[in-house]
Amino acid sequence: MNRRLVLLGVLGALVLGGAGYYLWQMAHPPEPAVRTVAGGGPPEHGIEHPLATAEGTALPPLAESDAPLAAAVAALLHAPALPDVFFPDRLARRWVATIDNLPREQVAMDVRALRPPSGPLATRGDEAQLEIAPDNSARYARYLEVLAALDPAQAAAVYRRFYPLLQQAYEDLGYPGKYFNDRVVAVIDHLLATPEVAGPIRLVRPSVMFKYADPKLEALSAGQKALLRIGPENAAAVKAKLRAFRAEIVVDH
Predict the structure, then answer these.
(1) 112-143 residues labelled b (16+ CB within 10 A) or e (exposed)
(2) Calpha distance 78→62 (Å, rounded)
(3) Which residues, 6+ apart, have CB-to-CB distance to 91 below 8 Å?
(4) What is the 3-state composition of the chain as percent helix, strand, coil, each rounded to the nearest 5?
(5) Along the 253 residues of the chain, how does pLDDT read in single tens digits?
(6) From the CA atom positions of the chain, what is the Rg in Å?
(7) What is the greatest pairwise CA distance in the chain?
(8) Under DSSP, is residue 83 helix (H, G, I), strand (E, B) or coil?
(9) CA–CA distance from 70 to each of 5, 66, 73, 80, 86 (Å)?
(10) Could you give the 3-state DSSP secondary structure of residue 50?
């Protein structure tokens, strides 16, 4: 149960990463012609949620994108450097891998986009009545503050500009011919389906790791468990941001 905060990986990738790239892009202005494309080369067939991206947009090579992304995010947050909530290397690849891993049982340590929150999971009660403490949600305040300031419409616009590199990172992850935006939408839908739990969430500790006492909750994915762990108010705010972002990147048929 002391797994890392993985939910914010998807938001960091889609929202903060995109907005950061926007600032880098302002220093490298293209003359784009907008078109609907598949991105880094997968076949056009079978794409469920195509994006309108900018043809001719100046992009750094994927292997050289850390510095401009880090500088842009720092500027966006009025910080002297990339905030230390982020791992500073392989930014685009980490964001893509984290998103892809969120519906799975866990997010691999070496691909996580964000550092863990400080301190252990806050609990209350004895072993027979162990539960997540209400003040545990305070551990995630820094992450939620960063996200709350971001506009989903602007984030979606810059996500489309940055999309070709994300698509390349996704294919390199082992999905040749697959379309990353389809995966993004599927992951958002998966997170939005996270159940809402009334009352305290009971825990058990059969070993070093905490687990949810309810087998249905314990069977949830890494991303859904993270939504439960951050508390109902924070989860509602995150879901609202995800819904708004999804509306920006999905074209109604």
Answers:
(1) bbbeebeeebeeeeeeeebebeeebbebbeeb
(2) 25
(3) 17, 65, 66, 69, 70, 113
(4) 50, 10, 40
(5) 334 344 445 555 444 444 443 344 444 444 333 333 444 444 455 899 998 765 666 889 999 988 877 776 676 666 788 777 888 899 889 989 999 999 999 888 888 888 888 888 899 988 778 999 988 888 888 888 877 777 787 777 768 777 888 899 999 999 999 999 999 999 999 999 999 998 889 999 887 788 999 999 999 999 999 999 998 989 999 999 999 999 999 986 5
(6) 19
(7) 64
(8) coil
(9) 20, 6, 5, 10, 9
(10) coil
The residue written with tokens 């997540």 in the block is: 132
Please enumerate in sequence order all residues whose Cβ is within 8 A of that of 11, keeping only pairs 6 or more positions apart, or say none: 147, 238, 241, 242
Q: Where are the domains of the chain?
A: 7-119+136-198+225-249
Cα 238 to Cα 18: distance, rounded to the nearest angstrom? 17
Identify which of 233, 210, 71 has the alpha carbon closest to the alpha carbon of residue 131.
210
CA end-to-end span of the chain: 40
Q: Is the pTM higher than 0.85?
A: no
Cα torsion 229, 123, 114, 217 to 10°: value is -30
DSSP assignment of 195-251? PP--SPPBEE-SSSS-EESSHHHHTS-HHHHHHHHT-HHHHHHHHHHHHHHHHHH--
